[in-house]
UniProtKB/TrEMBL annotation, chains A, B:
The keyword Oxidoreductase applies. Residues 3-291 form the Prephenate/arogenate dehydrogenase domain. GO terms for molecular function: NAD+ binding; prephenate dehydrogenase (NAD+) activity; prephenate dehydrogenase (NADP+) activity. Keywords: Oxidoreductase. This is Prephenate dehydrogenase. InterPro entries: 6-PGluconate_DH-like_C_sf (IPR008927), NAD(P)-bd_dom_sf (IPR036291), PDH_C (IPR046825), PDH_N (IPR046826), Preph/Arog_dehydrog (IPR050812), Prephen_DH (IPR003099). Signal peptide: none annotated. It comes from Noviherbaspirillum denitrificans. GO terms for biological process: tyrosine biosynthetic process. It holds the Pfam family PDH_N.
Protein backbone atom coordinates (compact mmCIF):
# COMPACT_ATOMS: atom_id res chain seq x y z
CA UNK A 1 0.00 0.00 0.00
CA UNK A 2 1.27 3.46 -0.93
CA UNK A 3 -0.07 6.61 0.74
CA UNK A 4 1.27 8.93 -1.96
CA UNK A 5 2.74 8.09 -5.36
CA UNK A 6 4.20 10.99 -7.36
CA UNK A 7 4.59 10.71 -11.10
CA UNK A 8 6.92 12.91 -13.15
CA UNK A 9 5.44 12.81 -16.66
CA UNK A 10 1.76 11.91 -16.79
CA UNK A 11 1.72 10.54 -20.34
CA UNK A 12 1.15 7.03 -21.62
CA UNK A 13 3.63 5.31 -19.29
CA UNK A 14 3.16 7.30 -16.11
CA UNK A 15 -0.59 7.67 -16.63
CA UNK A 16 -1.14 3.95 -17.18
CA UNK A 17 0.88 3.19 -14.04
CA UNK A 18 -1.36 5.56 -12.04
CA UNK A 19 -4.58 4.12 -13.44
CA UNK A 20 -3.48 0.55 -12.70
CA UNK A 21 -2.43 1.32 -9.11
CA UNK A 22 -5.75 3.07 -8.54
CA UNK A 23 -7.73 0.14 -9.89
CA UNK A 24 -5.74 -2.22 -7.65
CA UNK A 25 -6.70 0.01 -4.73
CA UNK A 26 -3.14 0.22 -3.45
CA UNK A 27 -2.61 3.99 -3.58
CA UNK A 28 -3.99 6.76 -1.40
CA UNK A 29 -3.09 9.74 -3.57
CA UNK A 30 -1.55 10.05 -7.02
CA UNK A 31 0.35 13.32 -7.42
CA UNK A 32 1.15 14.35 -10.99
CA UNK A 33 4.00 16.71 -11.82
CA UNK A 34 5.48 17.83 -15.14
CA UNK A 35 6.46 20.67 -17.42
CA UNK A 36 3.27 20.80 -19.44
CA UNK A 37 0.34 22.45 -17.66
CA UNK A 38 -1.97 21.19 -20.41
CA UNK A 39 -0.98 17.56 -19.88
CA UNK A 40 -1.31 17.92 -16.11
CA UNK A 41 -4.77 19.45 -16.39
CA UNK A 42 -5.85 16.74 -18.81
CA UNK A 43 -4.50 14.00 -16.51
CA UNK A 44 -6.51 15.45 -13.64
CA UNK A 45 -9.64 15.68 -15.82
CA UNK A 46 -9.23 12.03 -16.84
CA UNK A 47 -8.90 10.94 -13.20
CA UNK A 48 -5.34 9.75 -13.72
CA UNK A 49 -4.00 11.97 -10.95
CA UNK A 50 -5.67 13.33 -7.84
CA UNK A 51 -3.43 16.38 -7.59
CA UNK A 52 -1.55 18.08 -10.42
CA UNK A 53 1.18 20.61 -9.80
CA UNK A 54 4.37 21.99 -11.21
CA UNK A 55 5.95 22.07 -7.76
CA UNK A 56 8.67 19.45 -7.37
CA UNK A 57 8.88 20.21 -3.66
CA UNK A 58 5.19 19.40 -3.14
CA UNK A 59 5.47 16.29 -5.29
CA UNK A 60 8.39 14.88 -3.32
CA UNK A 61 7.09 15.76 0.15
CA UNK A 62 5.73 12.67 1.95
CA UNK A 63 5.76 10.54 -1.21
CA UNK A 64 6.32 6.79 -0.64
CA UNK A 65 7.18 6.26 -4.29
CA UNK A 66 8.25 8.55 -7.12
CA UNK A 67 8.12 7.35 -10.74
CA UNK A 68 10.12 9.29 -13.33
CA UNK A 69 8.32 8.60 -16.62
CA UNK A 70 9.82 11.29 -18.86
CA UNK A 71 12.12 10.91 -21.93
CA UNK A 72 15.46 9.40 -20.78
CA UNK A 73 17.42 12.50 -21.75
CA UNK A 74 15.56 14.43 -19.01
CA UNK A 75 16.28 11.93 -16.23
CA UNK A 76 19.31 13.68 -14.77
CA UNK A 77 17.62 17.11 -14.60
CA UNK A 78 14.49 15.66 -13.01
CA UNK A 79 16.40 13.65 -10.41
CA UNK A 80 18.55 16.69 -9.63
CA UNK A 81 15.40 18.73 -9.02
CA UNK A 82 14.07 16.00 -6.70
CA UNK A 83 17.25 15.49 -4.67
CA UNK A 84 17.09 18.54 -2.35
CA UNK A 85 13.65 17.50 -1.07
CA UNK A 86 14.18 13.73 -0.99
CA UNK A 87 13.57 12.17 2.44
CA UNK A 88 15.11 8.81 3.43
CA UNK A 89 11.83 6.89 3.37
CA UNK A 90 10.93 7.75 -0.25
CA UNK A 91 11.81 5.33 -3.08
CA UNK A 92 12.47 6.69 -6.57
CA UNK A 93 12.15 4.56 -9.70
CA UNK A 94 11.99 5.22 -13.44
CA UNK A 95 10.59 3.79 -16.66
CA UNK A 96 13.41 4.59 -19.07
CA UNK A 97 14.15 2.41 -22.12
CA UNK A 98 17.88 2.45 -21.40
CA UNK A 99 19.52 1.77 -18.08
CA UNK A 100 23.31 2.25 -18.00
CA UNK A 101 22.99 5.94 -18.81
CA UNK A 102 20.04 6.37 -16.44
CA UNK A 103 22.07 4.86 -13.60
CA UNK A 104 24.97 7.18 -14.44
CA UNK A 105 22.62 10.18 -14.48
CA UNK A 106 21.08 9.07 -11.19
CA UNK A 107 24.49 8.75 -9.51
CA UNK A 108 25.36 12.29 -10.59
CA UNK A 109 22.02 13.75 -9.57
CA UNK A 110 21.35 11.88 -6.35
CA UNK A 111 24.90 11.43 -4.99
CA UNK A 112 24.69 9.97 -1.48
CA UNK A 113 20.98 9.22 -1.92
CA UNK A 114 21.57 6.79 -4.81
CA UNK A 115 20.48 3.79 -2.68
CA UNK A 116 16.93 5.16 -2.87
CA UNK A 117 16.85 4.89 -6.67
CA UNK A 118 15.67 1.51 -8.07
CA UNK A 119 15.91 1.60 -11.90
CA UNK A 120 13.16 -0.07 -13.92
CA UNK A 121 11.87 -0.51 -17.46
CA UNK A 122 8.31 -1.62 -18.23
CA UNK A 123 8.27 -3.36 -21.65
CA UNK A 124 4.99 -1.99 -22.90
CA UNK A 125 3.85 0.74 -25.22
CA UNK A 126 1.31 1.98 -27.70
CA UNK A 127 1.54 4.06 -30.87
CA UNK A 128 -0.15 7.03 -29.13
CA UNK A 129 1.32 9.25 -26.43
CA UNK A 130 0.16 11.66 -23.75
CA UNK A 131 -2.40 11.31 -20.92
CA UNK A 132 -5.22 10.42 -23.33
CA UNK A 133 -3.28 7.33 -24.41
CA UNK A 134 -3.00 6.01 -20.84
CA UNK A 135 -4.93 2.77 -20.23
CA UNK A 136 -5.43 0.74 -17.08
CA UNK A 137 -4.39 -2.57 -18.74
CA UNK A 138 -1.18 -1.41 -20.40
CA UNK A 139 1.07 -3.54 -18.17
CA UNK A 140 -1.10 -6.64 -17.76
CA UNK A 141 0.95 -9.71 -18.70
CA UNK A 142 3.88 -7.54 -19.83
CA UNK A 143 7.44 -7.67 -18.46
CA UNK A 144 8.93 -5.02 -16.22
CA UNK A 145 12.69 -5.28 -15.93
CA UNK A 146 14.27 -4.09 -12.68
CA UNK A 147 17.99 -3.39 -12.89
CA UNK A 148 18.81 -3.08 -9.21
CA UNK A 149 21.90 -1.29 -7.95
CA UNK A 150 24.34 -2.78 -5.43
CA UNK A 151 23.28 0.05 -3.08
CA UNK A 152 19.55 -0.78 -3.19
CA UNK A 153 18.01 -2.44 -0.16
CA UNK A 154 16.15 -5.69 -0.77
CA UNK A 155 12.99 -4.19 0.70
CA UNK A 156 13.04 -1.16 -1.64
CA UNK A 157 13.50 -3.44 -4.66
CA UNK A 158 10.64 -5.61 -3.42
CA UNK A 159 8.41 -2.57 -2.99
CA UNK A 160 9.02 -1.32 -6.55
CA UNK A 161 8.46 -4.86 -7.86
CA UNK A 162 5.21 -5.08 -5.89
CA UNK A 163 3.94 -1.82 -7.40
CA UNK A 164 4.50 -3.14 -10.95
CA UNK A 165 2.97 -6.49 -10.04
CA UNK A 166 -0.13 -4.63 -8.84
CA UNK A 167 -0.29 -3.22 -12.40
CA UNK A 168 -0.31 -6.79 -13.74
CA UNK A 169 3.34 -6.86 -14.84
CA UNK A 170 5.73 -9.80 -14.57
CA UNK A 171 9.03 -8.86 -12.92
CA UNK A 172 12.35 -9.71 -14.55
CA UNK A 173 15.77 -8.80 -13.18
CA UNK A 174 18.86 -7.93 -15.20
CA UNK A 175 21.93 -5.81 -14.56
CA UNK A 176 21.83 -2.40 -16.30
CA UNK A 177 24.52 -3.64 -18.71
CA UNK A 178 22.69 -6.87 -19.54
CA UNK A 179 19.51 -4.87 -20.05
CA UNK A 180 21.14 -2.48 -22.49
CA UNK A 181 22.82 -5.25 -24.52
CA UNK A 182 19.55 -7.19 -24.77
CA UNK A 183 17.48 -4.20 -25.90
CA UNK A 184 20.18 -2.94 -28.25
CA UNK A 185 19.85 -6.29 -29.99
CA UNK A 186 16.11 -6.90 -30.12
CA UNK A 187 14.75 -3.33 -30.11
CA UNK A 188 17.20 -0.48 -30.68
CA UNK A 189 19.02 -2.06 -33.64
CA UNK A 190 15.79 -3.02 -35.49
CA UNK A 191 14.57 0.57 -35.08
CA UNK A 192 17.79 1.96 -36.52
CA UNK A 193 17.65 -0.55 -39.41
CA UNK A 194 14.04 0.29 -40.24
CA UNK A 195 14.69 4.04 -40.16
CA UNK A 196 17.77 3.52 -42.35
CA UNK A 197 15.84 1.52 -44.94
CA UNK A 198 12.99 4.00 -45.31
CA UNK A 199 15.42 6.92 -45.42
CA UNK A 200 17.47 5.07 -48.05
CA UNK A 201 14.40 4.42 -50.22
CA UNK A 202 13.04 7.94 -49.72
CA UNK A 203 16.28 9.57 -50.86
CA UNK A 204 16.48 7.65 -54.16
CA UNK A 205 15.57 9.66 -57.27
CA UNK A 206 12.74 7.21 -58.15
CA UNK A 207 11.39 7.00 -54.58
CA UNK A 208 7.79 7.59 -55.72
CA UNK A 209 7.91 4.52 -57.98
CA UNK A 210 9.46 2.43 -55.21
CA UNK A 211 6.83 3.37 -52.64
CA UNK A 212 4.14 2.63 -55.23
CA UNK A 213 5.19 -1.03 -55.29
CA UNK A 214 5.98 -1.44 -51.59
CA UNK A 215 3.54 -3.95 -50.11
CA UNK A 216 2.65 -5.56 -46.79
CA UNK A 217 6.13 -7.04 -46.17
CA UNK A 218 7.66 -3.57 -46.41
CA UNK A 219 4.87 -2.15 -44.29
CA UNK A 220 5.48 -4.52 -41.37
CA UNK A 221 9.27 -4.36 -41.68
CA UNK A 222 9.18 -0.57 -41.43
CA UNK A 223 6.35 -0.11 -38.92
CA UNK A 224 8.82 0.90 -36.19
CA UNK A 225 10.19 3.64 -38.47
CA UNK A 226 6.90 5.40 -37.72
CA UNK A 227 8.08 5.93 -34.10
CA UNK A 228 9.09 9.29 -32.65
CA UNK A 229 12.47 10.42 -34.12
CA UNK A 230 13.28 12.45 -30.97
CA UNK A 231 12.66 9.54 -28.64
CA UNK A 232 14.73 7.13 -30.74
CA UNK A 233 17.53 9.64 -31.19
CA UNK A 234 17.69 9.83 -27.39
CA UNK A 235 17.62 6.05 -26.98
CA UNK A 236 20.26 5.57 -29.69
CA UNK A 237 22.59 8.05 -27.97
CA UNK A 238 21.80 6.80 -24.46
CA UNK A 239 22.61 3.22 -25.45
CA UNK A 240 25.39 4.16 -27.84
CA UNK A 241 28.00 1.60 -26.77
CA UNK A 242 25.75 -1.47 -26.88
CA UNK A 243 24.04 -0.28 -30.07
CA UNK A 244 27.37 0.22 -31.86
CA UNK A 245 28.33 -3.32 -30.84
CA UNK A 246 25.12 -4.80 -32.23
CA UNK A 247 25.31 -2.71 -35.38
CA UNK A 248 28.87 -3.90 -36.04
CA UNK A 249 27.87 -7.55 -35.59
CA UNK A 250 24.95 -7.06 -37.96
CA UNK A 251 27.07 -5.29 -40.58
CA UNK A 252 29.59 -8.14 -40.43
CA UNK A 253 26.71 -10.54 -41.03
CA UNK A 254 25.57 -8.49 -44.06
CA UNK A 255 29.11 -8.46 -45.48
CA UNK A 256 29.13 -12.26 -45.22
CA UNK A 257 25.72 -12.61 -46.86
CA UNK A 258 26.82 -10.24 -49.61
CA UNK A 259 29.78 -12.51 -50.34
CA UNK A 260 27.54 -15.59 -50.50
CA UNK A 261 25.23 -13.76 -52.88
CA UNK A 262 28.12 -12.51 -55.05
CA UNK A 263 29.47 -16.04 -55.42
CA UNK A 264 25.93 -17.42 -55.96
CA UNK A 265 26.26 -19.84 -53.04
CA UNK A 266 22.60 -20.83 -52.90
CA UNK A 267 23.16 -23.58 -50.36
CA UNK A 268 24.77 -21.26 -47.79
CA UNK A 269 22.19 -18.49 -48.40
CA UNK A 270 19.39 -20.98 -47.86
CA UNK A 271 21.07 -22.18 -44.64
CA UNK A 272 21.03 -18.62 -43.23
CA UNK A 273 17.42 -18.04 -44.29
CA UNK A 274 16.34 -21.46 -42.94
CA UNK A 275 18.08 -20.91 -39.60
CA UNK A 276 16.30 -17.58 -39.27
CA UNK A 277 12.93 -19.05 -40.20
CA UNK A 278 13.34 -21.92 -37.72
CA UNK A 279 14.47 -19.62 -34.88
CA UNK A 280 11.58 -17.26 -35.52
CA UNK A 281 9.01 -20.06 -35.66
CA UNK A 282 10.29 -21.45 -32.33
CA UNK A 283 10.14 -17.99 -30.80
CA UNK A 284 6.58 -17.40 -32.01
CA UNK A 285 5.53 -20.80 -30.61
CA UNK A 286 6.98 -19.86 -27.22
CA UNK A 287 5.15 -16.53 -27.22
CA UNK A 288 1.88 -18.13 -28.24
CA UNK A 289 2.04 -20.85 -25.60
CA UNK A 290 2.87 -18.21 -22.96
CA UNK A 291 -0.12 -16.13 -24.13
CA UNK A 292 -2.28 -19.24 -23.93
CA UNK A 293 -1.15 -19.90 -20.35
CA UNK A 294 -1.72 -16.26 -19.35
CA UNK A 295 -5.25 -16.44 -20.70
CA UNK A 296 -6.01 -19.67 -18.87
CA UNK A 297 -4.51 -18.30 -15.68
CA UNK A 298 -6.45 -15.05 -15.95
CA UNK A 299 -9.93 -16.51 -16.41
CA UNK B 1 -13.02 -15.09 -73.33
CA UNK B 2 -10.63 -18.04 -73.18
CA UNK B 3 -11.65 -21.50 -74.40
CA UNK B 4 -8.81 -23.26 -72.58
CA UNK B 5 -6.40 -21.89 -69.96
CA UNK B 6 -3.57 -24.20 -68.87
CA UNK B 7 -1.84 -23.67 -65.57
CA UNK B 8 1.57 -25.04 -64.73
CA UNK B 9 1.62 -25.18 -60.91
CA UNK B 10 -1.82 -25.29 -59.31
CA UNK B 11 -0.82 -23.79 -55.94
CA UNK B 12 -1.73 -20.49 -54.32
CA UNK B 13 -0.90 -18.31 -57.33
CA UNK B 14 -2.05 -20.54 -60.20
CA UNK B 15 -5.05 -21.83 -58.27
CA UNK B 16 -6.29 -18.36 -57.33
CA UNK B 17 -5.92 -17.25 -60.97
CA UNK B 18 -8.06 -20.21 -62.08
CA UNK B 19 -10.74 -19.61 -59.44
CA UNK B 20 -10.98 -15.91 -60.33
CA UNK B 21 -11.27 -16.55 -64.11
CA UNK B 22 -13.97 -19.13 -63.44
CA UNK B 23 -15.95 -16.76 -61.26
CA UNK B 24 -15.69 -14.09 -63.94
CA UNK B 25 -17.11 -16.63 -66.40
CA UNK B 26 -14.39 -15.97 -68.95
CA UNK B 27 -12.88 -19.42 -69.29
CA UNK B 28 -14.25 -22.59 -70.92
CA UNK B 29 -11.83 -25.11 -69.45
CA UNK B 30 -9.02 -24.84 -66.90
CA UNK B 31 -6.35 -27.44 -67.45
CA UNK B 32 -3.97 -28.08 -64.54
CA UNK B 33 -0.53 -29.55 -65.04
CA UNK B 34 2.35 -30.09 -62.61
CA UNK B 35 4.84 -32.44 -61.08
CA UNK B 36 2.86 -33.33 -57.98
CA UNK B 37 0.01 -35.79 -58.60
CA UNK B 38 -1.30 -35.05 -55.09
CA UNK B 39 -1.56 -31.30 -55.73
CA UNK B 40 -3.23 -31.90 -59.10
CA UNK B 41 -5.78 -34.29 -57.59
CA UNK B 42 -6.47 -31.84 -54.78
CA UNK B 43 -6.91 -28.95 -57.25
CA UNK B 44 -9.43 -31.05 -59.20
CA UNK B 45 -11.26 -31.96 -55.98
CA UNK B 46 -11.46 -28.29 -55.01
CA UNK B 47 -12.87 -27.34 -58.40
CA UNK B 48 -9.84 -25.21 -59.24
CA UNK B 49 -9.16 -27.13 -62.46
CA UNK B 50 -11.49 -29.04 -64.73
CA UNK B 51 -8.83 -31.41 -66.02
CA UNK B 52 -5.62 -32.41 -64.26
CA UNK B 53 -2.80 -34.17 -66.04
CA UNK B 54 0.95 -34.57 -66.06
CA UNK B 55 1.01 -34.40 -69.87
CA UNK B 56 2.57 -31.19 -71.14
CA UNK B 57 1.50 -32.03 -74.67
CA UNK B 58 -2.17 -32.26 -73.67
CA UNK B 59 -1.89 -29.08 -71.61
CA UNK B 60 -0.43 -27.04 -74.44
CA UNK B 61 -2.72 -28.41 -77.18
CA UNK B 62 -5.43 -25.86 -78.12
CA UNK B 63 -4.72 -23.65 -75.10
CA UNK B 64 -5.41 -19.91 -75.59
CA UNK B 65 -3.38 -19.00 -72.57
CA UNK B 66 -0.73 -20.79 -70.50
CA UNK B 67 0.26 -19.51 -67.06
CA UNK B 68 3.52 -20.72 -65.56
CA UNK B 69 3.04 -20.38 -61.80
CA UNK B 70 5.94 -22.48 -60.49
CA UNK B 71 9.04 -21.35 -58.52
CA UNK B 72 11.16 -19.08 -60.76
CA UNK B 73 14.08 -21.51 -60.82
CA UNK B 74 11.87 -23.98 -62.76
CA UNK B 75 10.77 -21.50 -65.44
CA UNK B 76 13.35 -22.46 -68.08
CA UNK B 77 12.69 -26.21 -67.78
CA UNK B 78 8.93 -25.73 -67.93
CA UNK B 79 9.09 -23.41 -70.95
CA UNK B 80 11.49 -25.83 -72.70
CA UNK B 81 8.98 -28.63 -72.16
CA UNK B 82 6.20 -26.47 -73.60
CA UNK B 83 8.08 -25.21 -76.66
CA UNK B 84 7.82 -28.30 -78.95
CA UNK B 85 4.02 -28.27 -78.71
CA UNK B 86 3.46 -24.51 -78.75
CA UNK B 87 1.20 -23.33 -81.59
CA UNK B 88 1.28 -19.73 -82.89
CA UNK B 89 -2.10 -18.77 -81.43
CA UNK B 90 -1.24 -19.64 -77.81
CA UNK B 91 -0.01 -16.94 -75.42
CA UNK B 92 2.30 -17.92 -72.53
CA UNK B 93 2.68 -15.80 -69.40
CA UNK B 94 4.17 -16.30 -65.94
CA UNK B 95 3.81 -15.13 -62.35
CA UNK B 96 7.47 -15.08 -61.26
CA UNK B 97 8.71 -12.61 -58.61
CA UNK B 98 11.75 -11.72 -60.73
CA UNK B 99 11.72 -10.80 -64.38
CA UNK B 100 15.16 -10.26 -65.95
CA UNK B 101 16.17 -13.86 -65.31
CA UNK B 102 12.75 -15.17 -66.38
CA UNK B 103 13.05 -13.33 -69.69
CA UNK B 104 16.53 -14.73 -70.17
CA UNK B 105 15.26 -18.25 -69.41
CA UNK B 106 12.33 -17.74 -71.77
CA UNK B 107 14.60 -16.61 -74.61
CA UNK B 108 16.72 -19.75 -74.18
CA UNK B 109 13.74 -22.08 -73.89
CA UNK B 110 11.41 -20.60 -76.50
CA UNK B 111 13.90 -19.32 -79.10
CA UNK B 112 11.97 -18.11 -82.16
CA UNK B 113 8.68 -18.33 -80.26
CA UNK B 114 9.68 -15.69 -77.69
CA UNK B 115 7.10 -13.21 -79.04
CA UNK B 116 4.41 -15.45 -77.57
CA UNK B 117 5.76 -15.02 -74.02
CA UNK B 118 4.36 -12.03 -72.09
CA UNK B 119 6.09 -11.87 -68.67
CA UNK B 120 4.01 -10.90 -65.63
CA UNK B 121 4.14 -10.61 -61.85
CA UNK B 122 1.00 -10.44 -59.71
CA UNK B 123 1.84 -8.61 -56.44
CA UNK B 124 -0.20 -10.74 -54.10
CA UNK B 125 0.40 -13.56 -51.70
CA UNK B 126 -0.54 -15.29 -48.48
CA UNK B 127 1.42 -17.08 -45.77
CA UNK B 128 0.04 -20.47 -46.89
CA UNK B 129 0.88 -22.37 -50.08
CA UNK B 130 -0.58 -25.12 -52.25
CA UNK B 131 -4.02 -25.58 -53.85
CA UNK B 132 -5.80 -25.37 -50.49
CA UNK B 133 -4.48 -21.82 -50.05
CA UNK B 134 -5.96 -20.65 -53.37
CA UNK B 135 -8.76 -18.07 -52.98
CA UNK B 136 -10.95 -16.40 -55.56
CA UNK B 137 -10.25 -12.87 -54.25
CA UNK B 138 -6.45 -13.05 -54.04
CA UNK B 139 -5.90 -10.52 -56.83
CA UNK B 140 -8.78 -8.12 -56.19
CA UNK B 141 -7.42 -4.57 -55.93
CA UNK B 142 -3.80 -5.83 -56.17
CA UNK B 143 -1.26 -4.82 -58.80
CA UNK B 144 -0.12 -7.11 -61.59
CA UNK B 145 3.03 -5.89 -63.31
CA UNK B 146 3.46 -6.78 -66.96
CA UNK B 147 7.03 -6.45 -68.26
CA UNK B 148 6.39 -6.69 -71.99
CA UNK B 149 9.10 -7.69 -74.44
CA UNK B 150 9.88 -5.74 -77.62
CA UNK B 151 8.76 -8.86 -79.55
CA UNK B 152 5.30 -9.03 -77.93
CA UNK B 153 2.32 -7.97 -80.02
CA UNK B 154 0.07 -5.30 -78.54
CA UNK B 155 -2.91 -7.65 -78.77
CA UNK B 156 -1.16 -10.45 -76.83
CA UNK B 157 -0.18 -7.98 -74.08
CA UNK B 158 -3.75 -6.69 -73.97
CA UNK B 159 -5.10 -10.23 -73.70
CA UNK B 160 -2.84 -11.11 -70.73
CA UNK B 161 -3.74 -7.79 -69.09
CA UNK B 162 -7.44 -8.53 -69.63
CA UNK B 163 -7.12 -11.94 -67.94
CA UNK B 164 -5.59 -10.35 -64.83
CA UNK B 165 -8.17 -7.58 -64.89
CA UNK B 166 -10.88 -10.24 -64.89
CA UNK B 167 -9.25 -11.46 -61.64
CA UNK B 168 -9.68 -7.95 -60.19
CA UNK B 169 -6.06 -6.87 -60.59
CA UNK B 170 -4.82 -3.41 -61.57
CA UNK B 171 -2.31 -3.54 -64.43
CA UNK B 172 1.04 -1.77 -64.18
CA UNK B 173 3.75 -1.82 -66.82
CA UNK B 174 7.51 -1.76 -66.22
CA UNK B 175 10.53 -3.02 -68.11
CA UNK B 176 11.99 -6.26 -66.67
CA UNK B 177 15.00 -4.27 -65.43
CA UNK B 178 12.86 -1.58 -63.77
CA UNK B 179 10.76 -4.30 -62.19
CA UNK B 180 13.77 -6.06 -60.72
CA UNK B 181 15.31 -2.86 -59.35
CA UNK B 182 12.04 -1.82 -57.74
CA UNK B 183 11.40 -5.17 -56.07
CA UNK B 184 15.03 -5.58 -55.02
CA UNK B 185 14.56 -2.34 -53.10
CA UNK B 186 11.12 -2.71 -51.50
CA UNK B 187 10.85 -6.49 -51.18
CA UNK B 188 13.96 -8.59 -51.76
CA UNK B 189 16.32 -6.45 -49.65
CA UNK B 190 13.92 -6.24 -46.65
CA UNK B 191 13.60 -10.05 -46.74
CA UNK B 192 17.37 -10.47 -46.74
CA UNK B 193 17.72 -7.95 -43.89
CA UNK B 194 15.06 -9.63 -41.77
CA UNK B 195 16.57 -13.10 -42.30
CA UNK B 196 20.01 -11.70 -41.44
CA UNK B 197 18.79 -10.12 -38.21
CA UNK B 198 17.04 -13.22 -36.89
CA UNK B 199 19.98 -15.42 -37.88
CA UNK B 200 22.34 -12.96 -36.16
CA UNK B 201 20.30 -13.00 -32.94
CA UNK B 202 19.79 -16.79 -33.05
CA UNK B 203 23.52 -17.48 -33.35
CA UNK B 204 24.48 -15.40 -30.30
CA UNK B 205 25.41 -17.39 -27.19
CA UNK B 206 22.63 -15.72 -25.16
CA UNK B 207 19.99 -16.04 -27.90
CA UNK B 208 17.39 -17.46 -25.49
CA UNK B 209 17.60 -14.36 -23.28
CA UNK B 210 17.36 -12.10 -26.32
CA UNK B 211 14.26 -13.79 -27.70
CA UNK B 212 12.71 -13.64 -24.25
CA UNK B 213 12.73 -9.82 -24.39
CA UNK B 214 11.89 -9.43 -28.09
CA UNK B 215 8.52 -7.71 -28.37
CA UNK B 216 6.03 -6.56 -31.00
CA UNK B 217 8.49 -4.28 -32.83
CA UNK B 218 10.83 -7.21 -33.39
CA UNK B 219 7.89 -9.41 -34.35
CA UNK B 220 6.70 -7.12 -37.15
CA UNK B 221 10.21 -6.29 -38.34
CA UNK B 222 11.01 -9.98 -38.74
CA UNK B 223 7.65 -11.29 -39.98
CA UNK B 224 9.01 -11.77 -43.50
CA UNK B 225 11.82 -13.96 -42.08
CA UNK B 226 9.07 -16.53 -41.58
CA UNK B 227 8.84 -16.93 -45.39
CA UNK B 228 10.03 -19.99 -47.33
CA UNK B 229 13.88 -20.14 -47.35
CA UNK B 230 13.92 -22.07 -50.65
CA UNK B 231 11.71 -19.54 -52.41
CA UNK B 232 13.74 -16.58 -51.14
CA UNK B 233 17.04 -18.26 -51.96
CA UNK B 234 15.76 -18.59 -55.53
CA UNK B 235 14.57 -14.98 -55.66
CA UNK B 236 17.85 -13.70 -54.18
CA UNK B 237 19.86 -15.57 -56.80
CA UNK B 238 17.49 -14.77 -59.65
CA UNK B 239 17.68 -11.04 -58.87
CA UNK B 240 21.31 -11.11 -57.80
CA UNK B 241 22.53 -8.05 -59.66
CA UNK B 242 19.82 -5.65 -58.52
CA UNK B 243 19.84 -7.07 -54.99
CA UNK B 244 23.61 -6.60 -54.66
CA UNK B 245 23.16 -2.99 -55.78
CA UNK B 246 20.47 -2.31 -53.18
CA UNK B 247 22.41 -4.12 -50.46
CA UNK B 248 25.51 -2.03 -51.18
CA UNK B 249 23.52 1.20 -51.00
CA UNK B 250 21.98 0.11 -47.71
CA UNK B 251 25.32 -0.92 -46.22
CA UNK B 252 26.78 2.46 -47.19
CA UNK B 253 23.83 4.07 -45.39
CA UNK B 254 24.53 1.98 -42.27
CA UNK B 255 28.22 2.91 -42.34
CA UNK B 256 27.17 6.57 -42.39
CA UNK B 257 24.69 6.14 -39.55
CA UNK B 258 27.33 4.27 -37.57
CA UNK B 259 29.65 7.25 -37.92
CA UNK B 260 26.96 9.66 -36.74
CA UNK B 261 26.30 7.43 -33.75
CA UNK B 262 30.02 7.07 -32.95
CA UNK B 263 30.46 10.85 -32.93
CA UNK B 264 27.17 11.30 -31.00
CA UNK B 265 25.74 13.55 -33.71
CA UNK B 266 22.20 13.60 -32.35
CA UNK B 267 21.01 16.27 -34.75
CA UNK B 268 22.03 14.29 -37.85
CA UNK B 269 20.67 11.01 -36.45
CA UNK B 270 17.35 12.67 -35.73
CA UNK B 271 17.30 14.08 -39.27
CA UNK B 272 17.62 10.55 -40.74
CA UNK B 273 14.97 9.14 -38.41
CA UNK B 274 12.62 12.08 -39.05
CA UNK B 275 13.01 11.84 -42.82
CA UNK B 276 12.15 8.13 -42.61
CA UNK B 277 9.15 8.76 -40.37
CA UNK B 278 7.83 11.49 -42.65
CA UNK B 279 8.30 9.41 -45.82
CA UNK B 280 6.58 6.43 -44.23
CA UNK B 281 3.66 8.50 -42.97
CA UNK B 282 3.15 9.99 -46.44
CA UNK B 283 3.29 6.53 -47.98
CA UNK B 284 0.76 5.12 -45.51
CA UNK B 285 -1.56 8.06 -46.19
CA UNK B 286 -1.36 7.36 -49.94
CA UNK B 287 -2.15 3.67 -49.40
CA UNK B 288 -5.05 4.44 -47.13
CA UNK B 289 -6.60 6.98 -49.46
CA UNK B 290 -6.21 4.50 -52.37
CA UNK B 291 -7.90 1.80 -50.27
CA UNK B 292 -10.68 4.25 -49.47
CA UNK B 293 -11.19 5.00 -53.16
CA UNK B 294 -11.16 1.30 -54.06
CA UNK B 295 -13.84 0.63 -51.47
CA UNK B 296 -16.01 3.48 -52.70
CA UNK B 297 -15.56 2.37 -56.29
CA UNK B 298 -16.38 -1.23 -55.47
CA UNK B 299 -19.66 -0.64 -53.66
Amino acid sequence: MFKKVSIFGVGLIGGSFALALKRAGVVGQVFGVGRSATSLARAKELGIVDVASSSVEEAVRDADLILVAAPVAQTEAILASIEPFLQPDTIVTDAGSTKTDVVEAARKALGGKIAQFVPGHPIAGREQNGPDAAIVDLYVGKKTVITRLPENSASDVARVAAAWEQCGAIIHKLTPEEHDRVFASVSHLPHLLAYALVDDVARKPHADVLFQYAASGFRDFTRIAGSSPEMWRDISLANQAALLGELDAYMAQLVQLRELLAERNGKAIEAVYANAQRARQNWIKTIESAEQQNKQGGD
